[in-house]
Structures
1.
Amino acid sequence: MKKFFIALLMIFALTAAAAAYTPGVYKAKATGNNPNVPVEVEVTFDEKAITDIKVVAHEETPGLGDKAFEKVIPAILAAQKTDVDGMTGATMSSNALKEAVANCIAQASGTKSETVSTFKPGEYKATVTGHNGPLTVTMKFSENEILSIESEGVESVGIGTAAIEILTDEILKNQSLACDAVSCATVTSGAFLSAVRECVK
């Protein structure tokens, strides 16, 4: 009888271990290349695996964002995790998809979602047209973090420069480009965020 109960407990333990997810369809969003329209996904789970991933809404760059999704979704399904390679030239779209899927995995498994953004370590520069002329942004990255952001240009002192400082602090603090333009400095804000997106790519 004792052996029977031990065997029964082992069966229950194995069953619990195998049931990694609560079956169902889960939704999540993450900011990609377009800060105004997040990438939205629906991820389907059975008890043991991710069975389907659909991007149900996005406004990523045509020809890049959709291609990134076509590459990354099969990779996640094959690996059963979000730690997969993104698409060169569409880093933000790839990372947004992986982040949203990771959120769904966390929901289905009852665990905390982890940051999955990955970058190519190094220093990158981008120059755009600001309010008063060229605006150059220099960013440094580790594999999974934006380390620093520096800008150089002739934006309006007090308004433009303050807007850049505010946005820089927000991006570094939140590790996200989901920032609103600063009132009274929308041109400078837009130019700065555009340069940042170019660096992230």
2.
Amino acid sequence: MATKDTAKYEKKIVFFLDILGFKDIIEQDKLKPSDIIDRMDFLYDKLIPDTPPEIFESKKVTKFSDTFVISFDYNQGSEIFFTMLDIRRVQSHVLRFGMLLRGGCAIGDLHHGDKNIFGPALNEAYSLEKDIAIYPRIIIPDNIIDEAKNHSIRLHPAEHEKEYIMGLVRKDTDDFNYIDYISYDSVASEFDDPNEDWVIYMVKIRPYIIKGLKSNSPKIRQKYQWLKTKYNATLSTITVQDYIEALANKGATSIP
């Protein structure tokens, strides 16, 4: 364990994640402290992956209030991919219960100890979350994707690593990459029955989007307007008639 005198910066990849609407979860949902702890612990556990020890060895996850910070060595084999995969799983899961995440990712100097987290990389990831992300999305800069292709494990050939990463993200209208947690191509593989369960997923998240669009807060409506756009765009890409009928029959239609 590093002491005050031995603590130093190390080159790390860092993700800064924020739960949107946490204040409302506490004040309006009137959850007991034990329920809030259960939700936070669930997120924490999902962000600690069941990957092999040689992949996991440098990874740390810290939570405080409504924030999670994840870091690992910049050259940890394929860990950018695995962490993004874990985050996408968390995003798609908590959205089914009306929770949204926003965040950013950066590479650079970081000290991530048991009690203290600080450094230029954390500042950059925080700035992406606070100033750039705006909507319920986690920004993945181009330099992170470029870094990922330089550090792969044997199961992920180097020439395919960037392809795997790009399968998790979409390019938004402002040219920023974000982790895609809506589209069939990105999310369906997370479900036991990709076809049936993705339809159920789209059905479950629709009411939460509609509720958010009715908020009295312009900032909240802005976030859900973005999500509505992604939701409707996803539905518009479905061309298989069986899916179209299944979605319509269960009420997963475009949101006006």
3.
Amino acid sequence: MKRPIRWKQLLHKLLFPHPAVVLVCVPAAAALLVWVFAVAGEDSPAAYAVYPFSAYALVIACTGLGGMVRRLTAWVLHFPLAERLVRDVPFRARVTLYLSLGINLLYVGMNLVSGVRQRSVWFGTMAVYYLFLAGMRFSLVRYARRAGAGADQAGEYRRYRLCGILLVLMNLALGGVVVLVLHREGGFSYSGYMIYAMAAYAFYATIMGVVNLVRYRRYHSPVLSASRAVSLAAELVSMLSLEVAMLAQFGSDNGEGFRTLMIGCTGFGVSAVVAGMGVSMIVRAGRALGGRDRGAAGSSPAPEMPTAVPPRKGRGPLTDGPAARRTPL
């Protein structure tokens, strides 16, 4: 008796092959497509064999991506530092703060040198903007290094309030950036296909910034929440820079009025959101610190009653007898 063909198993093997098959097929399909378009020609007989093979390579690349990511993640987690980065949220936040601080300081130096050499108000304004970001991140890094996240709520709320104040003040530099862009005294530009990569990064970073801002609230650490708020402010500004670059590259047919309206509205919206976050951080920290102060004052011990008995009228102080040992009312 013939064994029935197990079509499901065969289909599963075709769609979910071994990772080695995927690693061989995908580069081979890419190389063959380049050869067809560059040498053989799109209508050549070889193209009719390359097209189905490249389609199959694309399918198994998509179906095998999840398994490859899981295997890669399991392999990476064997390293203690990588495992700590993945599982220890405060440690990952500190590492991110250090990296962001280093990048901000680099941008401060680059823009400051360019502004001095070229006598450019634009580079000077950008240096001030990055200086505000570096100042906030330096404050958070210094506190996290000294005390750690979650150790001192009062100290964390003070840093949280300081970051809120700096976010409000940073709007001065951000407003200067918008005004200079509107007067065409500065701007952002990305050459070639780099603008598409920057667009993908800006949208991804902004979405993840909002998600992390909400997610980090469950750790009840104002320092971690402040680091996410600062990152979200920087990512919103990157969205503004992306809009300016896209209008410069693709919006030449819409006229100057359209450009001014779009940049003005987006710049006002970003400034309003950043200022709103700063004011919210100031108010929240003030309420938390005020509540802690009132709680500390309410729980302080009552002053002790005096033990000395004042002298009675017409007589000297009680020094003898049982009356001298009575506790005054």
4.
Amino acid sequence: MYIQTVVFALAGALVAWQISYAKKRDIFDEFARENLKTTDSICLKIAYTLMVIAAVACIFSDFSGELAGYCIIISILLLTILRAVIFTVIDQKACRYNPSLKLAMDIAKVFHVTVEDLFEFTDDDK
């Protein structure tokens, strides 16, 4: 009984951390959404694999319902951790992408001018 409570508390803490991380990183930009879709796609494939392994183990061995429940809870906990790690790794590797730069280049292409003719660069890091 105590193990289930601890596992649920850890899963809840990881989900809360993931939400706070997403809010700090301004998750609503278009590139982060793509990263999240990629992360969810990877985790969905892992979830299918884990659930098939759990189902096969239940079919071919004498698993009790309680043991199967623990397997599912541990799988969900592992998926939560993996999702956070995968998203963090993908997001950190992709920080170099700047969608506003691509937009500026597309606008310049439409008007047949250079980006420098359209926009004035100022150094805001001072």
